[in-house]
Structure formats: structure tokens, C-alpha cells
Amino acid sequence: MLSLQAPSAVVMIRPHAFASNPETRDDNAFQTLSTASAEATSDAARDEHDRAVQQLRDAGVTVHVFDDFGDLNTPDSVFPNNWFSTHPGGHVAIYPMFVPSRRRERRTDVIELLKQEYRVQDVIDYSGLEQDNLALEGTGAMVLDHVARIAYTVTSNRADPVLLERFCTHFNYEPIAFEARDAKGRDVYHTNVLMGIGTHYALICLDMISDPARRVTVRNRLEESGRTVIDLTHDQIAEFAGNAIELTGRDGLILALSSRALAALTPDQIATIQNSATPLPLSVPTIETAGGSVRCMIAGVHLARR
């Protein structure tokens, strides 16, 4: 049975000029510098991407792959979930990005494929608001509960509150915004590094939510939606354990996450996931140097086939 939360098709971008982006390093504490050469780093990232695509396809997920040859200087293009999202009922959103290099990742061929193969009713393009220095970086900035219609959002320069309200009005979500900081007191740049929502469970580091009252609200809303809350630690978040996405494969629900993230989970946490989904670890250590992991690499297709 298809889950509203877990799409069976995804879009992924195959990188040819991957690098840890200097434009995003100031506010992304998850970024690290690779010690390998630029060419070796790029080749390793492409190999990791290709293996991940094959593993997802082997699990029965439809993967639409687009090559990015790096002509436009788009080092983060392997993370397409930030510039567009799709929604049940045939709706697509295109988002404004915080830094110039990420704005160049948007491409019409991805949207055209969605229109050709899926039922797309409308495309709402917010990208023009970049001229006003406003950003809302898709399902990086917002973790969407497609069932309870909630957009969980960490407030940051990547998630403008006015734009969040506008998105939620257009797409019929309730915004729940909160401040979040890591163990060193640094602001969290994207919501999807600290939480991920499956059909029957949610991964989240509640301790990163700064306001205790907001922490209680978020936990309550997740539990009210029928989900078991898997409370992650700061150390687990640093291993990208929150950056996971549930998908529908050939044999049911799977949780795509990095090998590093799965290794950071406790046996009890893994058992809770396995009550309803099969963890699918993908090895992406080079790609993780850019400050994102498996969730960031995958743009879910929540649209009906034509």
C-alpha cells in the first residue's frame, strides 16, 4: 500500500563537479573540507551517488536521474530537495535559495519530466523573491508531515517566516516554527538535519529545540499524528541520523539513510524503525562533507502517474 508520507519515486541529480560549497560554509556547521583533490572528490561523490541510485532501484524505488555537468558552478546540485518539492493533488513548488550558486541549480528539464510522467495541476514559483533576499529552501528548510499537514521549520536565513506563511497558505499546511541550536550553541541551518518523519515514527533531536515549551509542542504534535517519537542525541545528529527519508519500495516501506547515520542509532531505535520500515543504508561519506546526507540527495515525487 502506498504511503502518503513515503513516495515510491524520487528525483536525484548526478554530480560532475561536486565540492564543499564555500558560499554556504558560514552557516552550515555540518560542512567539512575534503583533503582529496577537487577531481578525486568529485569522482568519489559521483560514484557514491551512482551506488545509492542502484540500491534504491534494487529496492523497487523509481529514480529519475539528471546529470549536472557543473557548467554553471553548482557544487551543491546533488541536493535537489532544496529547490523544488511535489505534493499530492498535483502541486509543485519552486523555491528561492539563500546563496547565488544554489539558485543556479534550478532547471526546467526536471519540471518538464514531472509534467510529462505525472499529473501536475500547477507549479507555484517563489524563486523571484530572491530579489528581496528572501529564501525558503524547500524540504531542507521544512520537514513536511503530509498526513497531518504540518510544516515543521527551524527559523534561519534559509527559511523566511513570511515566505513560510505564504507556502503554508498555498499548500494547506500548518506552520510550526522553532529555533534550534547544536551542542555548541550554533544555529541549525536546515530542519531536515535534526528531524525526519516516517509513516509510523519520527526521528528528531528534541534537545536541539531551544524553547522548552516549543519542544513539548513539537513532541505532542508528532505523537498526536500517531507516530512513535525516536528522540535522537546531539551526537547522533552530528552523524546525520536525522537526515533520512522514508520511501515506498517493492516490498513496503524503507528508510533511506547514510551508513554513518545507521551506525549511530541504538538497537532499540533501529527496532522501532523496523516495526514498519526496513532501513536502507547508503554509503555517501564524500557527499556528507558538503553538510548534507541522504535526505538532502532525494527529492520525493508525491504525484500520481499519468
Automatic annotation (TrEMBL):
- Name-wise, this protein is Amidinotransferase
Tell me the organism. Ruegeria atlantica
Pfam families cross-referenced by the UniProt entry: DDAH_eukar
Record-linked SUPFAM superfamilies: Pentein
Family annotation (InterPro entries): Amdntrnsf_FN0238 (IPR014541)
Gene3D superfamilies this protein is in? L-arginine/glycine Amidinotransferase, Chain A
Superkingdom, taxonomy of origin: Bacteria
